[in-house]
Every structure is written in C-alpha cells, then in structure tokens.
Amino acid sequence: MKPAPWRIRGGREVQIPRLEAGLPSRRASVLGRTGASSGRNRPTDRPGAILVLTAVLMIVLIGMVAFGVDLGYVVLTRTELQTAADAAALAGAGAANEGRAAAAQAVYQFASLHTVGGRPITPDQVEIRYGLWDKNSRTFIPSTTECSAVEVTLQSFERPLFFGRVLGKQFFQSEAKAIATFAPRDIMLVLDFSASMCYDSQLRSISELGCTAVETNLLQIYQALGSPKFGKMQWTPQYISSNYVSTVKSTLGLTSVPYPYPRGSWDEYIQYVMTDSYIYQAGYRKKYGYLTWVNYLQARRYLYTDTPDLWKVPEQPITALKDAVDVLAAYLEENSPEDRLGLAIYTASDGTAVLESPLTQDFQSVAQIVRHRQAGHYHPQTNIYDGMKTGRLQLQNNARPGARRVMVLMTDGQANLPGGTTTGKQKALEEAYAAAAARIPIIAIALGAEADDDLMQQIATITRGAYFKIPGGQSVAEYEEQLKEVFRMVAADRNLVLVQ
Fold it and tell me: How many Å apart are CA 189 and CA 431, to the nearest integer?
C-alpha cells in the first residue's frame, strides 16, 4: 500500500488517508455501526397505549380495594353479631331456672351491651326460643313446658356498604344464631347420719335453743309416734324421788306393760332419767313422763334396729336436712332433668359408709331414702373419710363422660372414725386430696356449733369446691331455711355450654 499524499494545511503538513478498494475507512465503519442500523433498532414511542392500560388497572385496583373494605365490614358485623348472640344465649340459659321471663330479660340485657357496626342491639333484632337440646342428634327441640336450652337469633337490618353502591348494592343484612344449654351434672350427696343429728331435739340443747323450743319439738316427736299411752304416764314429767327402779316402775304403772320397741326397756329408761348428766343439767332428773321418754329414745335408742319409728319424727337437725334434700330433688326434677343424683351416708353398721343410691335421674327416690333414715340409723359415730371415699368412687366409676362431677358433703360433728378424732380427720384430708386428683370439687357444709369448721373448710379448699357454715344456737326454722338455701344454690350452680 502506497503512503498517503502529504498536503500543507495551515503551514503544516498532514497526511491525508486514502481509501483503498475493499478497505472501509474508520468513518465508514463507524457509520456502519451507528448510522446504518439506527433506523432499524430505534423503539417506537406509544404514550397513549400506556395511559389507557394504567386507567384500566386503576379501576380494577380501586374495585378490589372497595370490595375488600366492604367485605371486611360485612365480616366484622357478622363477628360482632355472633359474639352478642353467644353472650345472650348463655345469659338466658343461666337465668332459665328462674322462669322464661327472667331468661328473656337476661337475653335482652346482655344483647344490649353489645354493638354491631357501632350501633347497640335493640329488642326488635332479638328472637328467643326455649326448649331442649338433644345431644344425640345435636338438634334444638322447641318446648312450651320445658326449658333447659335457649336459642337466640340476632339480626342486623340494612347495614350500608361503603363502595358497594357503585356496583348497585347499597345495603346488606346479617344474622347470627346461638344455642346454650346446661352441661349435665352427676351429684353425689354424702350426708352425716350419726347420732348427733338429733341433738337439737334433746334436752341437752336447752341452754342453746331454749326450754320452750326443745320441749315443743319433743311434743311434736311424741305426736308423730302416734301419741302412745303406757300405764299412768303423762306428757308432763312426774317427779318421783325413789332411787329404786322397781318402785318408780310400779308408780308409773309400767310393771306389766310391754316395752313397745325391739330394743330398750322401761328399766333402762328409768335408770337413764335417774343418772344421765344432760337430764340433770336440764333440770329433769327423776322426772318421768313421755317428754323424758322421747328424749331417752333419741339419746340411747336411736338406731333403726332399736326404734324403727324414729325416721318418721321431726328430729333436728336431721329433719332440716331431709327438707333441704327435698328442695334439691324438686329443683333438679323441674329444671335439670339431665342431671343425676346419688346418695352415700355415714356411718354404716360396720363403721364405714354405705352407698344408699347409685347415680340416678329418679331424684324423688333419693329424697325418699333420705326421708326414711334417722339420726344414728346404722351407727352413732362419724366416718367422714369413708363417706367421701364412697362418693368419690361412685363418681369415678359411674359418672357420664362430659358430665360435671360434684360432691356435696355435710356434717354436724367431728370425724371420729377410723381410729379416733385425730386419725379420722387425717384420713378425711387424705381423701380430699384423692377427690382433688380426680377433679371432683366438694361443697362442704358445716352444720351447727359442734361441726368441725376447720376440717370442712380445708376439704373445700383442697378440692376447689365451696364451703358453707350454718352456725348453731339458732332456731330450727332459721338453720333449716339456711340449709335449704345452700341446697338451692347447689341446684342452681350449673355449667353452661354453647352447643351451637
């Protein structure tokens, strides 16, 4: 290749490149890379198409936001409505034992405490139905007579939508329904039928209850026995100074009169009036008549095998207990037909306890058994431990799955079996821990001044139950009403369950 010619430019010589055939210049190469291809690769500007696409997407996005806001509001309203319905149904079921009017009042009251969409619920939004809950078919059965379940329906009328009106939907309605019923209970009564359960009907209690109250009660017992007549005895005791049983017996005209009951005797009765310390303290020593004879029956011949008619008489405080059990049975029968009731009493003839009735829905049969027992029916002493154990085993072995298990324990005295007071109390506490382990709460009732308040309170605390103290020194009417009130509370204390 020849060198390029030189030219003088501005007084200087410069070499001018020459294009050779087949060899592109640098400029041509550059033009080939840039200029020749630029028309083919340059992107076309389309601003109108992008604006249209953006507008469409914005409409879709705004629609999704609007739908989300309205959907959230609908869900919130439905949740608030359901919460209110649940609370109202539970409140209605809890008050149903007081009647339908009370249940309705509770429903309206609890519903009104809630707001839906910022507005309180009004009675016109509430619908109530009463009836039964069939746990097998899981259906609500309306009833005009029975009421163990309450169904509450709440409605929300024409709630405004925020953005739905754009799509032609301005309002929405919502509804919530709830059904509440009672969880069934299995209740074991563990009751004290020791000999002390008739102390308030004896002359030994005159200092606490007064002479008139005790003598009136003794007369009621005598009349309940049929007002029998023996020899020359009268109701008002006759003082006979002789220390000879035969002389007193002859004076009373009882020498040839058979003693009326399987055990006991006229001789024993006379000796009792002569020597008993409580008779002496009450001022009736050597005073013979039906008043002191009835006292003798309760103090010395209390067993059913001794004097089988004593279950018929108004001994106290055992008659108050019987009346309280009647209240419980009637309440359960009317308001809690799904519950079951059992009975264990202490102390049995062997010194332990006896299961008088397994768990049953025949509440009146349990009440009748209680009615036909007397103070010291089998045994004079108090074995709280075995009574609790018998009740616990019945609940553990025979309670229904899902039922609430409860024990009601009552005593008027001290635990003195097995092995005396110290051991008896210790064993009772051991059994309380066994009941706690089995998750059986115990409602402990201490009746009268001689009841072991400390023991009963500990039993209730250990088992997370409840403790009631009914003090002594009151009239029969006072502690009977208090005992009935405790049993009413036991009957009304039911677990409420939302079943739908």
Answer: 16
Cβ-count burial 35-66 (b if 16+ within 10 Å, e if not) = eeeeeeeeeeeeeeeeeeeeeeeeeeeeeeeb
Give the DSSP H/E element, type plus range, for residue 250.
Answer: helix 245-251
Which residue did the predictor score with more confidence, 135 or 38? 135
| Residue 16, CA distances (Å) to 5, 12, 22, 88 in order | 6, 12, 18, 105
pTM of the predicted model as reported, rounded to 2 decimal places: 0.75
Give SS3 for 54.
helix
Measure the CA–CA gap between 394 and 409, rounded to whole angstroms: 14
Identify the CA nearest to 59 among candidates 165, 171, 162, 166: 166
Which is more confidently placed, 333 or 394? 394
Identify the burial level of 168 via C-beta atoms within 10 angstroms of its C-beta, where 0-12 means exposed, 13-18 middle and 19 or more buried: exposed
Residue 32 confidence (pLDDT): 47
The domain ranges of the chain are 54-182, 186-195+313-494, 226-312
User: For domain 186-195+313-494, is the CATH number 3.40.50.410?
Assistant: yes
Which residues have CB under 8 Å from 470's CB, separation 6+? 445, 446, 447, 448, 479, 482, 483, 486
**Which residue type is seen at 286?**
K
Place of tokens 């169904």: 151
pLDDT at 31 exceeding the cut of 60: no
Radius of gyration in angstroms for the set of CA atoms belonging to the chain, rounded to a whole number: 46
* H helix or E strand, kind and range, residue 88: helix 47-95
Question: pLDDT-based confidence at 169, cuts 50/70/90?
Answer: low
pLDDT at residue 33 tops 80: no
Q: Mean of the per-residue pLDDT values for the chain?
A: 86
